[in-house]
């Protein structure tokens, strides 16, 4: 398995033929709010640590998300003494838990991993630079008392993502996307973002996420640390030998 190039991808000029002009303007405002398109396009990898509280059950977990843009992700989740690790490289992957290891992810878990990659705001905000997708303006509405613009972006795994940004500041307010399960889409999840902070590399990102599923409270997430360009490599994240997966 080869690792991705260490350098950031070259900045591409958005194509107004595949995206509506208004959608591009809204995304560019959001890019400026996040720290600028140059900082976003310079991101090669992301490491995000978080604590999660499930709203319905009160169960707690911690999770580390390691991403190499645009196609590699590793998730490590710990709940009490239980640890689960999953890896996906854009084609296939594996999952390991106390109940065993599987070196062939089912198709729905591959779809879920692709969805998780696309949901990374650092990537999603650059959708106007992606010639393989289309970003459309949907409408303006009020979100938590703030005037907001709604954009729609197709998901590679089916359905569409809806990104809502503040019409004045450009801050991302919400992200709505289909939740994928063994039998396809099982719910619509909306994340509400808050507690924006500046990171050492100059990006401005949310540190709190309130998730709802089909309109009901689902997950409360607090980001404890986010790091960029730590030199992550796909052949290291795959870690198959160390995990005992053949």
Quickly describe the structure.
The protein has 246 residues and is α+β, with helices and mostly antiparallel strands.
Instruction: Write the H/E string, N to C.
Output: HHEEEEEEHHEEEEEEEHH
Quaternary state of the chains: single chain
The secondary structure category is alpha+beta
Largest sheet: 13 strands, antiparallel
Helix content: 10-25%
Q: CATH H-level name... which superfamily?
A: Lipoprotein localisation LolA/LolB/LppX
How many domain modules? 1
- Mean pLDDT across every amino acid position: 89
Widest sheet, order of strands: 6-5-4-3-2-1-13-12-11-10-9-8-7
Question: How would you describe the overall organization of this protein?
Answer:
This protein is of the alpha+beta class and 246 residues long. The chain has a single domain, classed as Lipoprotein localisation LolA/LolB/LppX (outer membrane lipoprotein receptor (LolB), chain A, Clam). Helices cover 18% and strands 46% of the residues. The chain contains six helices and 13 strands. It has a 13-stranded antiparallel beta sheet with strand order 6-5-4-3-2-1-13-12-11-10-9-8-7. Strand 12 and strand 13 form a beta hairpin. The two termini are 13 Å apart. The N terminus and C terminus are likely disordered.
Helices and strands in order:
Elements: H1 21-34, H2 37-41, E1 45-54, E2 60-68, E3 72-79, E4 82-88, E5 93-97, E6 100-102, H3 107-118, H4 121-124, E7 136-143, E8 146-154, E9 160-166, E10 172-181, E11 184-198, E12 204-213, E13 216-228, H5 234-238, H6 240-243
Antiparallel strand pairs: 1-2, 1-13, 2-3, 3-4, 4-5, 5-6, 7-8, 8-9, 9-10, 10-11, 11-12, 12-13
């Amino acid at each position: 398995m080869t690792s991705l190039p260490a350098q950031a991808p070259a900045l591409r000029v958005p194509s107004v033929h595949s995206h509506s002009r208004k959608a591009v303007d809204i995304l560019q405002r959001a890019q400026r709010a996040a720290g600028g398109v140059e900082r976003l396009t310079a991101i090669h990898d992301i490491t995000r640590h978080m604590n999660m509280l499930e709203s319905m059950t009160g169960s707690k977990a911690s999770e580390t998300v390691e991403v190499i843009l645009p196609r590699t992700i590793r998730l490590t989740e710990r709940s009490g003494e239980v640890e689960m690790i999953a890896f996906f490289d854009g084609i296939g992957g594996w999952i390991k838990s106390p109940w065993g290891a599987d070196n062939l992810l089912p198709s729905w878990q591959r779809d879920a991993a692709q969805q998780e990659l696309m949901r990374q705001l650092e990537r999603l905000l650059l959708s106007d630079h992606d010639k393989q997708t289309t970003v459309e303006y949907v409408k303006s509405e009020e979100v938590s008392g703030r005037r907001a613009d709604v954009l729609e972006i197709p998901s590679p795994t089916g359905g569409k993502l809806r990104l809502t940004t503040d019409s004045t500041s450009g801050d991302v307010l919400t992200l709505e996307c289909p939740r994928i399960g063994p039998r396809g889409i099982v719910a619509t999840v909306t994340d509400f973002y808050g507690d924006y902070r500046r990171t050492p590399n100059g990006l401005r990102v949310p540190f709190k996420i309130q998730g709802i599923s089909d309109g009901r409270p689902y997950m409360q997430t607090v980001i404890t640390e986010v790091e960029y360009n730590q030199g992550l490599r796909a052949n290291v994240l795959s870690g198959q030998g160390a995990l005992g997966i053949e």
